[in-house]
Design goal:
This protein is of the alpha+beta class. It has one domain (about 1-70). It contains 2 helices and 4 strands, in the order ααββββ.
Length: about 80
């Protein structure tokens, strides 16, 4: 996990401790079924959650639970190059 995080952030030149997965920094986890992931959005209805992504945890708070937003807003925008 740490190696994947470090490689991705190095490619994006992201310097945030949060993006690098540094101990003590917030983190996000996505639990999904790779065999079921599919985009449901269309031009007429673009704001659809994809199938197959069951749970998203952001900074320890469940944000997506079984395809539905819980109302939690625990994330933080990571700016490129900062």
């Amino acid at each position: 996990m740490a190696m994947r995080t470090k490689v991705s952030t190095a490619r994006l030149r992201c310097r945030s401790a949060r993006a690098k997965g540094t101990a003590g920094a917030g983190t996000s986890i996505t639990i999904f079924d790779a065999n079921r992931v599919a985009d449901k959005a269309t031009y007429l209805d673009p704001f659809q959650y994809p199938d197959g992504i069951d749970i998203v945890i952001v900074n320890g708070q469940v944000t997506i639970n079984h395809g539905r937003h819980t109302g939690a807003r625990a994330g933080q925008v990571l700016r490129h190059g900062r």
